[in-house]
Design brief:
The structure holds two protein chains of two kinds. Chain A is mainly alpha-helical. Chain A contains four helices and no strands. The longest helix of chain B is centred in the middle third of the chain and has 25 residues. The chains are: A mainly alpha, B mainly alpha. At the A-B interface, helix 2, helix 3 and helix 4 of A face helix 1, helix 2, helix 3, helix 5 and helix 7 of B.
Chain lengths: 105, 171
């Protein structure tokens, strides 16, 4: 009970790991491209949570600066990914990721 | 300011985050998924506040919950989701995918079970000054991380051009 009531870095890390796993399950099992992209956002957020928790643990600001860079990355990734999604939808009239198979052999 | 009732709020926001995440990956309608993701992101911003990172929390709300999720909702509006909502939602490898995720979870548990030895028991005692947080982050961005900051602007430029080229009908 003592360890439940005192929030340590480990609590944040476990929360981040749980969020990461949810994102991985979403990426691996969903067929809708939009939801796959959202699951990738979940994964990036789990990483951000870990970075900020470590930043608190060691008392520096490096982790927070990295988290901001990752948010920038997520914005770029979302823009390009959704652009690809629009191009794909225009060609195939679907958002099903199983039909993205032109390079499959 | 010393935080009040930290465990209660930690578990509250953690539960909101996890429920939001579960809703994101299980809903049929992508709009519902996007709204659940917004809730999860806002709960995460609150957890950033508990970690004495008010600037990251603000960026999370403005950029993530505001900017990126609006982009998602716009694209959901542009593509037709009626057909995909009638289809099967999970692909044929969902068993393998879940098993792989469970294996990854086992790895996390194995590592974090030993974490008590790796990490110091308690977070550092000195409470960071929240009023100096934004200033500290800014001076690091424009000082030590100057080069990475410039590269990030280049990355955003490339992403803008890429998104326009992808979404254009004829180039």
């Amino acid at each position: 009970m003592e360890s439940m009531l005192h929030i340590t870095t480990l609590h944040y890390l476990v929360l981040g790991a749980a969020l990461f796993l949810l994102g991985v399950v979403g990426v691996l099992t969903r067929r809708n491209v939009v939801i796959v992209l959202m699951s990738i956002e979940l994964i990036l957020n789990a990483v951000n949570l870990n970075l900020v928790a470590f930043s608190r643990l060691w008392g520096g600001l490096h982790g927070q600066v990295f988290a901001i860079f990752i948010i920038t990355d997520a914005a770029a990734e979302a823009a390009v990914g959704l652009g690809i999604l629009i191009a794909f939808f225009r060609n195939k009239e679907t958002v099903n990721i199983d039909e993205v198979n032109l390079l499959k052999w | 300011m010393t935080p009040v009732a930290t465990p209660f709020f930690f578990y509250l926001f953690a539960a909101i985050m996890l429920i939001g995440g579960i809703l994101v990956i299980t809903r049929k309608n992508p709009v519902h998924s996007a709204l659940a993701l917004i809730v999860a992101l806002l709960a995460q911003a609150s957890i950033y506040l508990m970690l004495y990172a008010p600037f990251v929390a603000g960026v999370q709300i403005i950029l993530y919950a505001g900017g990126i999720m609006v982009l998602f909702l716009f694209v959901i509006m542009l593509v037709s989701i009626e057909r995909s909502m009638k289809e099967r939602q999970f692909n044929s490898q969902w068993v393998a995918g879940t098993v792989a995720a469970v294996a990854l979870g086992g790895l996390f548990i194995a590592v974090y079970a030993k974490a008590e030895k790796i990490f110091p028991h308690h977070a550092i005692r000195i409470t960071p000054d929240e009023l100096l947080n934004t200033q500290g982050v800014a001076s690091m961005l424009y000082g030590q991380y100057m080069f990475a900051f410039e590269i990030a602007s280049l990355l955003l430029l490339v992403a803008i051009i890429g998104a326009v080229v992808m979404a254009k009908k004829r180039i």
